[in-house]
Amino acid sequence: MEPNLHSPQRHLIELGMAHADLDALIDHAADASPMDELMMRRLKKRRLALKDAMARLREQLAPDEPA
């Protein structure tokens, strides 16, 4: 049986990995001096967008209310 490379579960995992990578990058950039505020805002905005996309995908996979 071949795994589905385009499944929502796989997409959720990939989003989670990208979110974790951004977390690490933001932590590393915060320790650097001088800190580039514009870059930090952009990274944090992208991290939030990934978090929102993960929440929407989780909601599609397991809706709160029965159909």
Question: Poorly predicted ranges (pLDDT <50, ≥5 residues)?
Answer: none
How much helicity do the residues have? over 70%
How confident overall, as mean pLDDT?
A: 88
Domain module count? 1
How far apart lie the N and C ends? 30 Å
Decide which structural class fits the backbone.
Answer: mainly alpha
Number of strands: 0
Order of helices and strands: HH
- In percent terms, what proportion of residues is strand? under 5%
Biggest sheet record: none
The gross shape turns out to be elongated
Count of separate DSSP helical elements: 2
The radius of gyration over CA amounts to 16 Å
Give a structural overview.
- This protein is mainly α and 67 residues long.
- It has one domain (8-58).
- It has helices at 8-31, 37-61.
Briefly say what this structure is.
The chain has 67 residues and is mostly helical. The chain has helices at 8-31, 37-61.
